[in-house]
Write a structure and sequence with these properties.
Structural class: alpha+beta
Largest sheet: 7 strands, mixed
Number of helices: 4
Number of domains: 1
CATH architecture: Roll
Shape: globular
Radius of gyration: 21 Å
Strand content: over 45%
């Protein structure tokens, strides 16, 4: 009886371990970091969330390595004007047995202002793409993007190319 009381007292004093985050929660946190880095126009932080071997296959089948994607990101950031909102929604998630690789189908929606023909215009884009994330040193990093589809672009609320 005394032993049971001691164990119960010990259980009430020892704090519970925080719940382990799920892979989805961990990836959502990485997407939040990526969005915040874009809003800050912080190319170093953006590239830090990608592997050294990061690459993409674009919607027309073009192969882009990390260096070309960093240059693309720089060009994208140059024209951004606030307010900038970025929303990334995980539509599908497949995770390897040991939680070291995740294949994510994500919808990315970005609204920002850009200077177009001498005027500040609201540009909204949306795309669905497949991303491969790998866990390196305890952190998820983006390794590969392909299956880019369902691209939409609006300028001041009107469809644009």
């Amino acid at each position: 009886m005394t032993r049971t009381i001691a164990v119960l007292l010990l259980l009430t004093v020892v704090p519970a371990q925080p719940a382990k985050r799920t892979v989805r929660e961990e990836l959502d946190a990485q997407y939040e970091k990526l969005a915040a880095a874009h809003v800050r126009k912080d190319i170093t932080a953006i590239m830090a969330l990608k592997t050294d071997t990061f690459y993409t296959i674009g919607p027309q089948g073009e192969l882009n390595d990390r260096i070309s994607m960093e240059a693309h990101s720089r060009r994208f950031l140059e024209g951004l004007r606030p307010p900038i909102t970025i929303k990334q929604t995980i539509l599908d998630l497949k995770v390897s047995e040991h939680e070291l690789v995740a294949i994510v189908t994500v919808q990315q929606e970005i609204a920002r202002f850009r200077e177009i023909d001498g005027a500040s215009r609201k540009v909204e884009t949306s795309v669905v793409q497949r991303e491969t994330w790998v866990k390196q040193d305890g952190e998820w990093k983006l390794q590969f993007v392909d299956d880019v589809r369902d691209q939409k672009r609006l300028v001041d609320g009107e469809p644009a190319s």
